[in-house]
């Protein structure tokens, strides 16, 4: 496929919006009251649930179950109206994907393992397109994407912070992220642009430069976003600003839309270096360190500071669709995708 994934998303979102129109759905009504509109399509049922029903790995406040009859969307009862609306339209986008010929064809053509993350990016973009008028987005980002401009977009509309992050990421000048960071430095949501890897909800953002923004100030410079495993990603230009207890962090690999010194960046991630006494070898681990002693696990035998090699039963598996490490009970047999996909 010669088109970039971003260019493909740019083509597919209008196709999804056109399909909505063919169903007789008014996009303005969908944006104003997603719950009322969605239940009129294909018999979709909304289930209002508590946080435990969705799990901590969900990046949005809802979950689509398309394999059931009728199809269902579980949505958090206790969340802000803006986040709830974005989440509902995001999951409704999953429902629409098989019915839009261009989308179904594009997902079929993607390499194995890439269709899940791509569909997540696509329905994020679809939800943002429904919720945010193009003229407002264009005006706010006329001078580029910065943390301050993302905050202005959120303050100028009724859309959620997540929707604003998606709209901003779409306009980044280079690969990167627009991230919503919680007061505890964990990523609540990360919209991506280009070929960067996804950053899961709950990933602790330990970048030193980011911390002044997390404390309610601003931050600019060069640092690294952090993946769920604790591995630091490639160096990127960072612009961040705290507001109302949350932080908007804009990361780009090149050509930031704010004044910065041009410098060569280290493009590779940084793993956890350690030494295994059992194997007698130095190593670099790309997995989360031990939760008890904080030391990296030997990739050969699984040893760390508090447990010898070979004593750790395999309790988790990486889902190749949502890229989360989940308990074995979340999988059917030897499947590499969890029961939610």
From TrEMBL:
<dbReference type="Pfam" id="PF06114">
    <property type="entry name" value="Peptidase_M78"/>
</dbReference>
<protein>
    <submittedName>
        <fullName>ImmA/IrrE family metallo-endopeptidase</fullName>
    </submittedName>
</protein>
<dbReference type="InterPro" id="IPR011011">
    <property type="entry name" value="Znf_FYVE_PHD"/>
</dbReference>
<dbReference type="InterPro" id="IPR010359">
    <property type="entry name" value="IrrE_HExxH"/>
</dbReference>
<feature type="domain" description="IrrE N-terminal-like">
    <location>
        <begin position="70"/>
        <end position="163"/>
    </location>
</feature>
């Amino acid at each position: 496929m010669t088109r970039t994934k971003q260019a493909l998303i740019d083509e597919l979102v209008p196709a999804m919006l056109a399909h909505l129109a063919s169903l007789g759905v008014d996009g303005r009504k969908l944006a104003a009251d997603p719950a009322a509109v969605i239940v009129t399509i294909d018999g979709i049922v909304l289930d209002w649930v508590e946080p435990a029903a969705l799990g901590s790995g969900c990046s949005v406040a809802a979950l689509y179950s398309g394999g059931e009859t009728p199809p269902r969307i579980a949505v958090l009862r206790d969340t802000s109206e803006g986040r709830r609306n974005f989440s509902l339209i995001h999951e409704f986008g999953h429902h629409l994907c098989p019915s839009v010929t261009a989308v179904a064809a594009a997902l079929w053509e993607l390499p194995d393992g890439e269709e899940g993350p791509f569909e997540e990016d696509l329905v994020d973009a679809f939800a943002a397109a429904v919720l945010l008028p193009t003229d407002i987005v264009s005006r706010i980002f006329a001078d580029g994407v910065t943390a301050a401009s993302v905050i202005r977009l959120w303050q100028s509309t009724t859309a959620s912070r997540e929707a604003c992050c998606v709209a901003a990421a779409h306009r980044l000048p280079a690969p990167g992220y627009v991230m919503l960071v919680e007061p505890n430095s964990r990523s609540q949501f990360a919209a991506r642009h280009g070929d960067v890897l996804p950053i899961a909800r709950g990933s602790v953002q330990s970048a030193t430069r980011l911390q002044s923004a997390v404390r309610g100030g601003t931050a600019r410079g060069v640092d690294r976003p952090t993946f769920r495993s604790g591995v630091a990603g490639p160096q990127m230009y960072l612009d961040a600003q705290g507001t109302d207890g949350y932080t908007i962090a804009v990361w780009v690999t090149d050509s930031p839309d704010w004044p910065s010194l041009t410098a060569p960046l280290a493009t590779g991630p940084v793993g956890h270096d350690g030494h295994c006494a059992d194997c007698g070898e130095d190593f670099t681990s790309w997995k989360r360190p031990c939760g008890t002693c904080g030391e990296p696990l030997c990739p050969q035998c699984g040893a760390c500071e508090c447990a010898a090699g070979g004593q750790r039963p395999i309790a988790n598996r990486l889902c190749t669709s949502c890229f989360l490490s989940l308990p074995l009970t979340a999988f059917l047999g030897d499947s590499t995708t969890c029961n939610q996909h």
